[in-house]
Design goal:
Blueprint lengths: L31 H12 L4 H8 L8 H9 L6 H9 L3 H9 L5 H31 L5 H30 L30
Helix pairs in contact: 1-5, 2-3, 4-5, 6-7
Length: about 200
Amino acid sequence: MRTASAISPNTANLRGAETGIDFSVLGIGSNVNAVISAVLKIKEPRKTWGFLIDLLPREFEMTERVAKHRLAGSRDYTVEELQALLRSEEGIDFLIAIMGDAQPLWWRWMTKVMTLAAVRRRQAEDAQEILKLETSGDVDVGARRRIKGALNADKRISAAVARAETTLGLSRPNLDRVGATSDGRNARLPHRPVARTGGR
């Protein structure tokens, strides 16, 4: 069963968002083919080639021989294969591994959003467990107090997450702007005059 892990901006490049895989142990630099193969081998160490074939849609018709060449590094992954891997259910782990140490503004923002989503998911699971306890018939007074305390804590967490979501929504990087810098300011476009402020 997969375990969710909270991702902070400092650990986003080291841990898989859903699987908790520690990618820092790979020690493979920035070669995308090696990164993809290493992630596949971590996820399925026995028959990695079969796992790769299963991840790709049927229209690729990848054979065992081709899959083994990709994993060995003797043949590069095609752009279409990389795209299919990123679009798969395992895609987030491939993206995190490919990003490595890169920390562009959009990536830092996205890791915060993923962290909040993981917190919300865990919170919903905990609420279901609390509901089961609350509705069971044989609950004593002490247990009812603990349940009430858990519900109050859940409300505080919900409020904190809502504030964080609002902040993230307001601080979303404007990636639509041409020439935006990593700190969110506009860079001056080359060979374009800058309009003066105020009158002539």
